[in-house]
Amino acid sequence: MEPQPQSSNSPAKAALNTGLVIGLVMLSINFIVYFLDYSYLVAGWYGFLVLVLFFAQVIYFGKQYRKEIGGFMDFSTAFQFSFVTLIVSGLITTVGNMLLYFVIHPGLPELLVETQLENMVAMLDSLGAGDSLSGEQIDDMRKEMASNFTFGGQIKAFGISLIIYAVLALILGAILKKRDKSTDF
What we know:
This protein is mainly alpha-helical. The chain has six helices and no strands.
């Protein structure tokens, strides 16, 4: 393991601050999109765009942190920074979404489920499989989608996200690490 220059800003502390910033940025984007057109919240392109933006922010702030601690960061530090950042920003986004779904616009989950279901049926129709769905299957899909917007569904989604965050943090850790080659013999 390579020595890290001492910094008053530990990876966890830096990640808490970064996670807070990224979480608030992502939540702001979510609310702006909601006010523009709520149906975008369940659009595939929006999900992809948010993921890319999320990744880009963690990389940007990770490189800033690496520069702050001397320009080098081992994998474990990069992983810790990334994982804590993802958890904090994910928690902020989840709480913000719950606020949106349960306080600001309690009818929004139903609208999102219907929009998501319409998008799915349209996609299946374009593939020629839309007619193979029965009314019962569509109702089952509607119930499953609706369960994702409940309080329990949001908690469950955050729990699943923790596993995804761990994998993403491994990837981000590999991207952000930089070893000091001058210490090689």
